[in-house]
Amino acid sequence: MLTIRLQRVGRKNQPVFRIVLAEKHRAAQKKTVESLGLYNPRNKEFTVKEERVKYWLEKHTALSPTVHNLFVTKKLIEGKKIQAWSPRKKPVAAGGAEQAGAASVPASPASQPSPTKEEEVKTEVAAESREQVQSEAATASNKPADSDEPAPAA
To answer: 77, 71 in Cβ contact below 8 A?
Structure first.
């Protein structure tokens, strides 16, 4: 099925779009059937081959929502604009406290992937270093402040 849609050709942060006729389920940057015009949203430049667009519209070619809105604005087709996109909706938590309680409980060990050897070694080294720092802090706190004697070794 053919559709008239936009193909981005501009540079980074400088969008320019070709208005092309292409297969609906093919990537926009891939092979197109025909180039029908150009649209630059930065300076609102809009050029189109009107006779070719009218020809393809007579053949009942589909329009992308953005191209439909452009054609309505430029009076190439009659009708109302349609909603081209909508922001993603965040999932709503039903039963707030129940969801929050379930989220704080860690997942079962069976659902978590098993750690690799390197990860196990890293966690063991980290635990040993934490124990060493804690023991050094404990011996430092046992040392009297006014005494010149070293603290007993643990």
So the answer is: yes
Residues in the chain: 154
50: Cα separation from own chain's centroid = 36
> 125 or 97: which carries more pLDDT confidence?
125
Question: What is the CATH topology of the domain spanning 2-73?
Answer: S16 Ribosomal Protein; Chain: A; (3.30.1320)
Residue 84 banded pLDDT, cuts 50, 70, 90: confident
Q: Pairing mode, if any, of strands 62-63 and 2-8? A: parallel
Q: What share of the chain is helix, strand, coil (3-state, %, to 5)?
A: 35, 20, 45
pLDDT above 90: residue 102: no
